[in-house]
Each structure stands twice: as structure tokens, then as C-alpha cells.
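TICKET #2291
ISSUE: user wants both folds in one file
ATTACHMENT 1:
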Amino acid sequence: MEFQLLDRLSFQRFVGLRSSSQIPDRTTIWKFRERLLKAGASESIFDAVNRQLSRHGYIARSGQMVDASIVQTPKQSMSKEEKVLVGEGAMPIDWKPAKRRQKDMDARWTKKHGKSYFGYKVSANADKRYKLVRTIKISAASEHDTLHFEAVLDPSNTNRDVLQTRAT
């Protein structure tokens, strides 16, 4: 986000910044995102944006494109004991605060086409005509794509066509 804001005037205008000296650094953006997630506000914001799009005539009527992608995160190096604790949803007591911030406790391993990945799965539904994302679901990479399909279908899309992307 920081790079895009520094690189593009259109991004700066979109977020209401008047000069590059006002652009927040990546740590500020990350902390803000974390606060939104903790407050449960990210879905509310997403829904509000979709309501505004509908109000301005961007109504989902031309079918749906559904995609599930793996977003990789850095692999975690942990001892066997630490892995057991993390698997149980706990955090080792001897981890210092700096180490706790750097450990991803929610990412998981999965295999796709014989290759292993560590991270998350992002399933998205975009309107076929406007290419606007209407719904998203994020989970650990280990969850199967079929678990997300119905969760991301948009019942407000008046066209029954559903295009599903496939990895090659």
C-alpha cells in the first residue's frame, strides 16, 4: 500500500491525501489494519462499499466469477514442542513480544498439484461485468476450496452464470 501511494497520484487522490509527505508508512498501515480486524470492522467496511456501488448503479447482474487462491506467508521455524503448543492454539511462554509479533499462528500447510504451500486461502467472487469483488472468505490454506464456494456465492447477483477459475 505504501509503495502504491508513493507511486500513483490516483491512489493518493482516492484516499484523500494531498501530498506525498502525508503518506503513512507500512507499519502505520499494518497497525491500522490490525485494529480494524480486532474491532471486526473490515466486513462492515466491505459491505458499506458494496452498498455504495449498488446505489451508484453497479448492480451485480451479469454472472459471477469465483476464484480460490493461495497466499503464501514466510515459513515458520519452530521446535517440535513449539509446534505442538501452536497446534493447540497456545503460544510458548518463553517467546518475547518481538518474536510473538513475527510468528504467524493461523497459517497452515497445504498441497496443490504436488507442491507444498504455507499460508492462507483467499476465495473471492467478482461480478462478471464490472470485475468488482462482491464477497471474500479468508482461511488457513489447509481448508479445501469446496468449503468456500457456497460462502462466496452472491445471492444478489441476478444472473445464474457462475464461472470458476482453475489453476493450471
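ATTACHMENT 2:
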Amino acid sequence: MENTILHKAATRGHAHHGWLDSYHTFSFANYYNPQRIQFGTLRVLNDDAIEGGKGFGLHPHENMEIITIPLEGDLEHKDSMNNSSVIKNGDIQVMSAGTGIFHSEYNKNNDKPVKLLQIWVFPNKKNVTPRYDQISLNMEDRHNNLQQILSPFAHDQGVWIHQNAWFHLGRFDKDLETEYRIKAKGNGVYAFVIEGDFMLENQELNQRDGFGIWNVDTIKLKSLTENSEILLMEVPR
């Protein structure tokens, strides 16, 4: 299809630093692929596993919306705005780096890995005042349903960012079908399969595959396996 792009899990960039095992859907750090810089305003989608007790020391970010979705274990966060917290599966964390922020991320536990998705989205405003937020979601609300976890609006469900973007998470029983309707004209959707297998429109997707689609109003989705989980990221193209 003209209006789609498929990134199979095995084609992602991969970096293994001992303490960190990281897969990059888009160019990141030492992984550079000119065909895979971004999907619209979606710039980074990293699938990370951090060994017990290890993590990223204090490091800077600016002018980027940074979303962290823990999948397993406990991630300890500290930053230059005096925030200190632990996030786990079911939580969503967001930072608007804006004019600049320093933060660190560590595995809270010594005896098991922490697994997470870290996502960067280009903001629609530069040099905003840095901001941090995290929320705990009711994970039951995503059973056989697309649960909104992020939007452009502070009063809406989930966290918010400085961008015309909406993220949804869903966990589905086998053979369940649903439809996603694009919220803003001109936006595309990048789907990332966390677990299991899906049929999205006419494309079969397996665990950790990514699939971008644009110039559509709705997207049909069908779970092919029990307990399949997917993340949909609607972003400006």
C-alpha cells in the first residue's frame, strides 16, 4: 500500500551494552538508517531492558516530548526539577524537556530487569518551561478496548504533550475486532505490537513489529492471538 510503512521487529537497530539491551525502531545513538529517521513527529521508539540496579545516569534533554511506558519491573526517575518517583507497568510518564532538563533513570530492583518503551515526539512549541507528570492507569480499561493514555489536552484522559498527538493502548482476546478513528485531519498512526499478533487493515503484525499508516480516516484492527497488546500513536505527519 502507498500510504503505509512496515518495520519488522528483526529489522530494528540493536545495541547491547551489557546492562542495557535496546532495540531502536528509528535512528538513535550509533544506529543510523536514513530511511528510518522518524514517522511524522514521532522521532524515537526505543524498546529497552535494563539490568538489575543499573540505569542511565544524569543526562540532558531539550525541546522534546519524552514519554516512558514501563512494561515490566520498576523504573526509578530523578530530575533537575526535584522530581523523584518510581514508575511501573500501568503507569505513564511524560516530560516536556523544553528549555532543558536533566534526568536519570535506574532499575529500582537488583534482582530483575526493568523493561520499558521510551518514545520521543517533536513538540509543536519550542523552549517551553520544562514539565514532568506521571499517572497510574486502570489497566482493566484497556481489555478489549483502546484506552487513551495521551492527548494534546491537560483536561483529557491520560497525560498531555505539546503536540497534536493521541496514544492508545489495548489488550485483546483472540479474534476481537475494533476500529480506531483518526482524531485530527492529516495525522498518521504508527502501531507497535507489544505482545502477540494482529491484523491491522490487511497487514499481519507480530510481536514488536511497527506499522505506520496515513491518509485514512479509520483503521481496522483484529487480534489474532490471546492476550495481544498494541500501542497506537497518532501523530502529525
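RESOLUTION: both attachments delivered.
EXTRA DETAIL ON ATTACHMENT 2: The domain at 139-236 is CATH 2.60.120.10 (Jelly Rolls).
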